[in-house]
Amino acid sequence: MTHRVGVIGGDGIGPEVVAVGLEVIDAAGVELDTVHYDLGGHRYLRDGTILPDEVLDEWRELDALYLGAVGTPDVPPGVIERGLLLKMRFELDLYVNLRPFTRPAGDGHPGHDFVVIRENTEGTYAGEGGFLRRGTPHEVATQGSVNTRFGVERCVRFAFDLARSRRGHLTLVHKTNVLTFAGDLWERTVDAVAAEYPDVTTAYNHVDAACIHFVQDPARYDVIVTDNLFGDILTDLGGAVSGGIGFAASANLHPGRVSMFEPVHGSAPDIAGTGTANPTAAVLSAAMMLDHLGETAAADRIRKACADPESLTGTTREIADQIIARL
Ligand code: IPM
Ligand code: MN
């Protein structure tokens, strides 16, 4: 059975790293039936298209989506992010954003291996809010956070299941001492679900303290579950303490349905076209996509080939060749 995959290279270095990901999948012996979509800031500037509903409907019928990066400095912030990437996450209801972080032991570092489960369809990202008297001295801007019991609970359940399959430890990261409404809902949800998982131990960290632990003692973590915005910020830090953002991969999941796989990094317009982008994050995202497609043996081989990130240096082409040679 071939897998039907929609490919959105996007902007900047996106198309360059996605091309390597597809090459590595091919070299690992997995055949994909790909459909390429020309979307992103460059397309928007050309003809105003962001994400047509017909395209979304096509995507619902696919097995997976593989995305490079979207966004360009020539388009005001938010247009492509909200109109394409977030629309994709929301409309396809990709409620889990799974971001794994590993670092081998060495150089006086004990090594770590943890996963951040970021809620992906709610919180401040839901777009609640607006302006009043915009552009006047009395203007008001509000930007609320939407947290539903249903949305939080399905994400928390996913995180508990994952923890159970790993080292059996789950940490809720939030800011319950200040965000007393949303934090309370998250905390009660975790406590209620925890009762069904007596084999999983739990902990709680405020997000500011979690930032310290990410830098000083990330080995304490197994699975972290957190809201959309905290997860966004924490996972950049997770990348930074795990060899760099060039190695951070992610899966945007709705278990059992079409899901989307993308590197955590952005379009890096400053280095686009120079052939120097590190494709490893895109390759590791491709491995996560293969897991989703049931090609777990190929996915494991790809992950093994990327296991020593520090040695994956050089140009985009050199890193690609290195990974393929190790397969
Ligand atoms: C990410 C990105 C996106 C986000 C941006 C591009 C909208 O930073 O995937 O982490 O904030 O979720
Ligand atoms: Mn981010």
Report on the structure:
The chain is α/β, with parallel strands linked by helices. It contains eleven helices and twelve strands. 39% of the residues lie in helices and 20% in strands. The strands form two sheets. A ten-stranded mixed beta sheet has the order 2-1-3-12-11-4-5-10-8-9, sandwiched between helices. It has a two-stranded antiparallel sheet with strand order 6-7. Helix 1 runs parallel beside helix 11. Bound molecules: 3-isopropylmalic acid and manganese (II) ion.
Brief summary:
This protein is of the alpha/beta class.
**% residues in beta strands:** 15-25%
Radius of gyration: 20 Å
Hetero compounds: 3-isopropylmalic acid, manganese (II) ion
* Poorly predicted runs of 5 or more residues: none
Instruction: Please state how the strands of the largest beta sheet are arranged side by side.
Output: 2-1-3-12-11-4-5-10-8-9
Strands, count: 12
The assigned structural class equals alpha/beta
N→C terminal distance: 22 Å
Biggest sheet details: 10 strands, mixed
Count up the helices: 11
Average pLDDT rating: 97
Helix content: 25-40%
N-to-C SSE string, H for helix and E for strand: EHEHHEHEEEEHEHEHEHEEHHH
